[in-house]
Q: What sequence folds into this?
């Protein structure tokens, strides 16, 4: 498994080896040795594993978790295809407001690590696209926040010519500036402390 640091500080893309044969193929979506080599520590203790299924054109996000408690994520796409966005929402981060993309699909099986305070969005490029999540915290609706993916200050380059489908909550989400003025954005120093907390055995 190879790792590549993204344009957002602390976020990584992981590219596993895929082993095909006459029966099909085998892939390991997460490998602790690769994670330790990239981040200097193992994956966070997993509190929840989740999965979403989306039709072509579904746009989810930009989603993030109120910090604290904060939430780290590791995502991959076991079926279909998606354009995944990693957005730095941590006030005080050297890459605040910056974003990067990773093509997720069931061919290369890339995974993406999101540190606490980093926003996540994706566009499903095929029907029945599955996105699988490992989460460091259990889902709490009161702590889940969203920003507008159309905010020109963020400037996400969404796929052209694809009619996008959003939830009502995502359509009503505030801009980056509005969320910052309301004190909703995560603090970089707090996020770093959460990210480096010792692993619970």
A:
């Amino acid at each position: 498994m190879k790792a590549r640091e993204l344009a957002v500080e602390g976020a990584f893309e992981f590219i596993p080896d895929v082993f095909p044969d006459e029966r099909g193929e085998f892939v390991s979506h997460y490998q602790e040795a690769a994670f330790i080599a990239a981040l200097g520590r193992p994956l966070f203790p997993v509190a929840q594993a989740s999965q979403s299924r989306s039709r072509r054109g579904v746009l989810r996000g930009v989603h993030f978790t109120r910090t604290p408690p904060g939430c780290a994520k590791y995502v991959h796409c076991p079926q279909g295809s998606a354009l995944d966005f990693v957005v730095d929402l941590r006030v005080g981060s050297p890459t605040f407001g910056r974003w990067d993309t990773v093509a997720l699909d069931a061919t290369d099986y890339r995974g993406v690590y999101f540190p606490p305070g980093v926003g996540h969005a994706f566009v499903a490029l095929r029907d029945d696209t599955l996105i699988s999540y490992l989460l460091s915290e259990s889902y709490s609706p009161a702590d889940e926040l969203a920003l507008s993916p159309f905010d020109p200050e963020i400037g996400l380059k969404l796929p052209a010519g694809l009619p996008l489908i959003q939830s009502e909550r995502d359509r009503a989400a505030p801009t980056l500036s509005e969320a910052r003025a309301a004190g909703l954005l995560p603090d970089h120093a707090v996020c770093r402390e959460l990210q480096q907390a010792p692993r619970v055995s």
Notes: Helices lie at 32-39, 168-171, 176-181, 188-195. The chain has one domain: 2-195.
